[in-house]
Amino acid sequence: QVQLVESGGGLVQAGGSLRLSCAASGSISSINGMSWYRQAPGKQRELVADITSIGSTTYPDSLKGRFTISRGNAKNTVHLYLQMNTLIPEDTAVYYCYAWDSRLRGYWGRGTQVTVSS
Question: Among candidates 2, 116, 89, 102, which has minimal Cα distance to 52?
């Protein structure tokens, strides 16, 4: 089992930046890749970025250049980050951390709210 806890959300003005963090604990050695998703009110959850165990990253075309995913490993935990720049009101959503293991089992965090004011 893997536990994920997000932090770093909040209220920011349009044009500002935020850095989200996700701390993974538990069976972290089994983690194959990690992602950030977001879900805006009334919309489906969508992929924001993902990163594999070897550091390969992917982003939707609409977010390339503004968002950057990164990952850091420590002794008993793994940290996932999302640097978000030039935020716009449409980025307002709950942002979720997601991890998958070698058996493709998926784990979700509870999310952190990001609100961008115009």
Answer: 102
**Amino acid identity, residue 56?**
S
Q: Could you count the other beta carbons within 10 Å of the beta carbon of residue 51? A: 19
pLDDT at 28 (0 to 100): 87
Copy the structure tokens of residue 98.
């997601």
d(CA 4, CA 6): 7
Q: Are 19 and 94 in contact (CB under 8 A)?
A: no
CA distance 110 to 89: 22
Q: Rounded to an integer, what distance in angstroms lies between the CA atom of residue 41 and that of residue 106?
A: 23
Instruction: Encode pLDDT of 11-30 as tens digits.
Output: 999 999 999 999 999 988 88
Which 3 state secondary structure label does DSSP give 106?
strand
Residue 92 is given by DSSP the state -
Distance CA 30, CA 102 (A): 6
Chain Cα centroid distance, residue 83: 9
Decide if 48 contacts 82 (C-beta within 8 A): yes
Tokens of 112: 């952190």
